[in-house]
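ok so for the tutorial part 2 we go from a plain amino acid sequence to predicted structure tokens. step 1 is just haveing the sequence, like this:
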Amino acid sequence: MSAKSDPRDESAGAEYSYRRTLSAGELLPAIGVGMAAGLLAFYVTRVFLQRTPLSARAVATSPRRSRVARAPGG
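step 2 — the prediction. this is what the tokens look like for a chain of 74 residues:
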């Protein structure tokens, strides 16, 4: 058996494909998905930045509920 020097299939045609220009109707779904992804990223970032920061001091001084069961009426 002789080894080929170029293992690519030579029977496949050397066809070139070019990008075609898209119409506005074909671009609308892609634009919609891009805008939705941008709005979602904006919302998640906004919620993340608005949350109360946790620090050791804030956790230590925060009021905690007592885990001891209290008797009714007192």
